[in-house]
Amino acid sequence: MEFVVRSKELSLGRYDTDKIANGYLDRYDSFLYPLVSRDVKVLEIGVRAGGSLLLWRDYFPKGVIVGVDVALPDGLSGEDRIQIFRGSQEDTAFLSEVALKTAPEGFDLIIDDASHIGELTKVAFWHLFDNHLKPSGLYVIEDWGTGYWDDWPDGRSFQPEPPWRSLGLRLLRKLTLVREAPWANHNYGMVGFVKELVDEQGAADLTQARMSGVPARTSRFEKMVITPSIVFITKSAR
User: Fold this and answer.
1) What would the pLDDT profile of 173-231 be if each residue is shown by its tens digit?
2) Which is it for strands 133-142 and 221-227: parallel, antiparallel or unpaired?
3) Closest-CA residue to 126 (of 68, 196, 64, 192)
4) For a Cys-Cys bond, which of 25, 45, 57, 197 suits 7, CB 3.0-4.6 Å?
5) Does 116 participate in catalysis according to the annotation?
């Protein structure tokens, strides 16, 4: 299939979304080009002013775009191929209600651009991924790097260790006396959740335990790609 840089075919200045200023579409293009001409069902959690819904509607000429947010934007109620619903990403009953109403066979693409809070993102991810994303579907988590920020609810900025401390910790870790993550945000929040997803990608090795072992299961992911600010996860076809 020929690679189509779909975003270059659109007048991006029309859309009120930070995905453009942040340079996210360059990465999206490389994952989404096989879907451009298909009758896709897209769910985006966290839509702010609604500009991204208009963007996706035009990006996928045959697509149906579903948006969810705790506060709905104005002016989208009459837009063709766009449906919006008010609710929270951690409300799994609500998410299922929306999914069964708009995409009973599952979504082809789910984008989480909502709270950027690890625990809420985790609840929405596993519920939607397991129950409402098609096999081989794509799940995208935006702005996971907020988990490093002091001014974000579950964030803590990266602080390089002074050389003396780094050397001391390396020596202690070699002696297995120190096992904790070097930064607290590795254990919780968005960064901790991304690490949890890495474990799922490695499920076969994780459950094999040793070289001679047999994996208890394979990953639910076909692949996981971590980029600055965005994680792309393709669901296994099985």
Assistant:
1) 555 544 455 556 667 899 999 999 999 999 999 999 899 999 999 999 999 999 999 99
2) unpaired
3) 196
4) 25
5) yes
Note the pLDDT of residue 156: 63
pLDDT value at 140 more than 80:
yes
Structure tokens at 222: 């076909």
- Show the domains of the chain with their CATH numbers: 6-148+219-235 (3.40.50.150)
The CA distance from 108 to 43, in Å, is: 8
pLDDT in tens, 19-78: 999 999 999 999 999 999 999 999 999 999 999 999 999 999 999 999 999 999 988 878
Tell me which amino acid residue 218 is: T
Amino acid of residue 88: S
Strand order in the sheet with 41-45: 82-86, 64-69, 41-45, 107-112, 133-142, 230-235, 221-227
Contact 73, 84 (CB under 8 A): yes
Of 116, 127, 132, 186, which one is the catalytic site residue? 116
Q: b vs e for 97-118, b when ≥16 Cβ sit within 10 Å of the residue's Cβ?
A: ebbeebbeebbbbbbbbbbbbb
Question: According to the model, what pLDDT value does residue 167 have?
Answer: 60
